[in-house]
């Protein structure tokens, strides 16, 4: 039985075609006993565009941060993404945040190539000074790309 399982595994491994993926690298490493908290929301007013009808994204979205008073913040990062080549400047609670880095990926269809982006920014000092309020993201504007290409 063990030999049959091993042979089956080898055959399945040999028959699979190699996958194509993007290269990844370590962004940040924290050694020790750490935990993390993630909060977020969406600017989509409803499920993604499955019927090729247009919807305007919401102008803002908020989420609550609830850390204990004994928590020590080591790092805080804001991540955002959307359709097109990118909006690299957003607002959080009225503060303008510029992306530290932007990544794009192309989704190739039979008739079109759709580009998507993602950004991040280190907002550690902002979060440590603000604490636990409601955080509101605004200023993410991708309406031009959405209105000029109905495939998004």
Describe the secondary-structure layout.
Layout: H1 2-15, E1 60-64, E2 77-83, E3 89-92, E4 95-98, E5 101-108, E6 113-122, H2 124-130, E7 134-138, H3 143-148
Antiparallel strand pairs: 1-7, 2-6, 3-4, 3-7, 5-6
Description:
The protein is α+β, with helices and mostly antiparallel strands. It is 18% helix and 28% strand. The chain is built from three helices and seven strands, in the order αββββββαβα. The strands form two sheets. The protein has a four-stranded antiparallel sheet with strand order 1-7-3-4, with no helix packed on it. It has a three-stranded antiparallel sheet with strand order 2-6-5, with no helix packed on it. β5 and β6 (113-122) form a beta hairpin. The longest helix has 14 residues, at 2-15. The termini are far apart. The mean pLDDT is 85.
Task: Give a brief description.
The protein is 18% helix and 28% strand. It contains 3 helices and 7 strands.
Distance between the termini: 50 Å
Number of strands: 7
Across the major sheet, the strand order is 1-7-3-4
Number of discrete helical segments: 3
> What is the averaged pLDDT score?
85
Q: Write down the Rg.
A: 21 Å
Order of helices and strands: HEEEEEEHEH
Shape: globular
Beta content comes to 25-35%
Query: Biggest β-sheet: count, sense, barrel?
Result: 4 strands, antiparallel
Helix content: 10-25%
Uncertain stretches of 5 or more adjacent residues:
none
Structural class determined from secondary elements? alpha+beta
